[in-house]
Amino acid sequence: MSLFDLKGRVALVSGGNGGIGLGMARGLAEAGAAIAIAGRNTGKSEAAAAELANLGAETTVVSGDVTDEAQCRRLVQETVARLGRLDILVNNAGINIRKSAQELAAAEWRQVLDTNLTSAFVCCQAAYPVMKQAGGGKIINIGSMLSIFGAGFAPAYGASKGGIVQLTKALASGWAKDNIQVNAVLPGWIDTDLTREAREQVRGLNTMVLMRTPAGRWGVPADLAGIAVFLASRASDFVTGTAIPVDGGYAAQV
């Protein structure tokens, strides 16, 4: 269907070399978009780019640390320089430090907030003039179930992901006049390297997730491909400021 066709569009996906980011990048590539993969691990990013190229997508790797403001801005600049434009920005890069609030150092708090929230703000800010000049664009910010719920083992992560939703609403409100739609995706419990580590660190997590999730399973990165294509395409031109759970019904069930 033409509403979902991304041919001629360019997407920059931070943290796009694995997990949810790569799952979304695959969906965007299959819909026809050219993809810039941003990450710190160049080898991993190159492997992801090669995979997307096998799907027929034009790809490039833009390496950088999203906790550095100048590098965030460079990721956008390099994407435009190499692929000619920027239509879609996916802010997916993220980390977690699982400690209770009383044990979390201020430096660790800042590390999580800088990686998960401040980087998204700076990348959005860098993308704005490019998208405005082009006549519009799509921004997809990756939140979490912890944008909605609380967890004593992840105070900084929860704060960062709650902030993602409010940042999304603010940008959507401010940039709608420029035909830039800004939305958040709230993944549920998705089977990634990050959550496999969580299952090792948080006793009973696997059982709790399976019991709470009506779908009866953990999600996989491919489950995020469809929402990425929808929010990146013309099909969502009147959708902005939303925070959409992709969680197998986890947030809907008591």
List keywords for this structure.
254 residues; 7 strands; alpha/beta; 45% helix; seven-stranded parallel β-sheet; globular; Rossmann fold
Give an account of the 3D structure:
Helix 1 (19-30) crosses helix 8. Helix 5 links the parallel strand 5 (137-142) and strand 6 (180-187). This protein has one domain (2-191, 221-247): NAD(P)-binding Rossmann-like Domain (Rossmann fold). The longest helix is centred in the middle third of the chain and has 29 residues, at 106-134. The chain is built from eight helices and seven strands, in the order E-H-E-H-E-H-E-H-E-H-E-H-H-H-E. The protein is globular and about 45 Å long. It has 254 residues and is of the alpha/beta class. It has a seven-stranded parallel beta sheet with strand order 3-2-1-4-5-6-7, sandwiched between helices. The chain has helices at 19-30, 42-54, 69-83, 106-134, 155-175, 193-201, 205-212, 225-232; strands at residues 10-14, 34-39, 59-63, 88-91, 137-142, 180-187, 243-246.
